[in-house]
Amino acid sequence: MKVIALIPAYNEEATIAEVLQKTKPFVDGMIVVNDGSWDRTSQIAQGQGAVVVSHVVNRGLGAAIGTGFAAAKCLGADVVVTLDADGQHDPHEIQKFVAAIEAGADVVIGSRLLEDTSPCQGEVGRGRMPLHRKVANTIGNLVTFLLFGAWVTDSQSGFRAFTRFALSKIEIKTNRMEVSSELIAEARRHELNLVEVPIKAIYTDYSLSKGQNFFVGIKTVLKLVVRRLMS
């Protein structure tokens, strides 16, 4: 089973090397989609052995994931695992995603809000997510459910895995943050087997500076409503 890590990145020169170094032992290849960065993200990623695909301008998370999916297909990936470039995810947990797929899942979402009851599990994601992130995530969950009829506990998680079969079915039509809900909607539309696995939430001042603010969140909801009306 060929496992490829897909990491969208926009001006992540501060963290991308460490993320790739930690990811490399658990995958067979790494793709970094350099989404119009003006810093050294691309050069650093290449130096770590990643395949780098670049957008000339910043197109957004959805466009970066779409580009990455296409590149992963070209590389013959059996499984594609998406991670954030800011160090928020623990690549050691990729093994959980692969195990879920081996057990029959088509799409796996890493949830920061599920308790991990496995033996010897150190940290639990639930207690570490800041309150404002929990509120935003809950709203995202509700919007995803109300618009697309699909419920998950962590709809905005960037730690996910997809089989080659899932990639053949999923169509990404959005360019920016709304892609997180769109991927779940696509899984439901094509009746893919979607499961969640518990993951740790790793937050630093740097990673907390990323993501959506209130106004971007409102724009994301409006774009999802348009996406629903057009589907």
Write a compact overview of the structure shown.
The chain is an alpha/beta fold. Helix content is about 40%, strand content about 15%.
- Gross CATH architecture: Alpha-Beta Complex
Distance between the termini: 33 Å
Average the pLDDT over all residues and give the rounded result: 87
Percent range for β-strand residues: 15-25%
Provide the CATH superfamily. Answer: Spore Coat Polysaccharide Biosynthesis Protein SpsA, Chain A
Please give the CATH class: Alpha Beta
Order of helices and strands: EHEHEHEHEHEHHEHH
Quaternary = single chain
Structural category is: alpha/beta
In total, the number of strands is: 7
Low-confidence stretches: 119-127
Q: Looking at the structure, what is the overall shape?
A: globular
Largest sheet: 7 strands, mixed
Number of domains: 1
Number of helices: 9
Would you kindly provide a written description of the structure presented here, covering whatever features stand out?
With 231 residues, this protein is α/β, with parallel strands linked by helices. The chain has one domain (3-230): Spore Coat Polysaccharide Biosynthesis Protein SpsA, Chain A (Alpha-Beta Complex), CATH 3.90.550. A 7-stranded mixed beta sheet has the order 3-2-1-4-6-5-7, with helices on both faces. The longest helix has 18 residues, at 131-148. It has 9 helices and 7 strands; from the N terminus they run βαβαβαβαβαβααβαα. Residues 119-127 have low confidence and may be disordered. Strand 2, helix 2 and strand 3 (51-55) form a beta-alpha-beta unit.
